[in-house]
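note to self — DONT lose this again. spent like an hour looking for the file last time. sequence + predicted structure for the chain T wanted, 248 res
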Amino acid sequence: MSERTVDWTALRPRGEEPGDEGLREKKKRLMRQQLSDTATEMFMERGFDGVRVSEIAAACGVSEKTVFNYFPTKESLVLDRWEATTAALRSALTEPATPPVEAVLDVLSGELGAMTSWLASQEDPVHGAALMTRFGALIGSTPSLRAHQHDQTGRLVSVAAEALAERTATGPDAPEPRIAAIALLGLWDVQSLSLRRHLKEMSTPARLHEAVTADVRRAAELLRAGLASFGREAPCGTALSPGGSRPS
């Protein structure tokens, strides 16, 4: 399997394709997909800094301006999952019946499932795991990609804080929703590190999914007690302690 045959779109979790999109919307979606996948292939082959945006445009038969019409920065060509993740996170956290930890675990499970399903669909899952490892190494070894990822994570924290603030009728900058959002977004880092570690010893995609899920849920257990009382109204202005009990 060569990198030119890899469906990079499937590797990077996205939202579901709209079922009622028109021809114009479909063409735009497919062009965006082509630009991102072509850029990823070229970055994997030559390194992020070794490829110019004009070369990506030429490979896709479009102008450099067209590339930037779809992607505001060169970094977003390869790190393009944030829009779908943001929408999923906001939707999950604004559901009042779902505890915040469970809501985030559902989003993470969907992203992990997309990646392990991609691995299972490869002719050679071991080679696919090696490509995933190289994809992660590309991001980790490129300062501008790491900076972009850090910025986008910060935006996700703000989105989560806003959603959590709505549950408590407070502002997103209040201490409780802010620290809760930071803690919840830390589970993405746990999943990423776990995936990287277990990819090295992967036996099957199903085992990989099981091992990473177990790691994420272990980390989530540390958050459950502290966030179990989040959003409950304490009468007479008394606050709930992190464990859910009222101060004496």
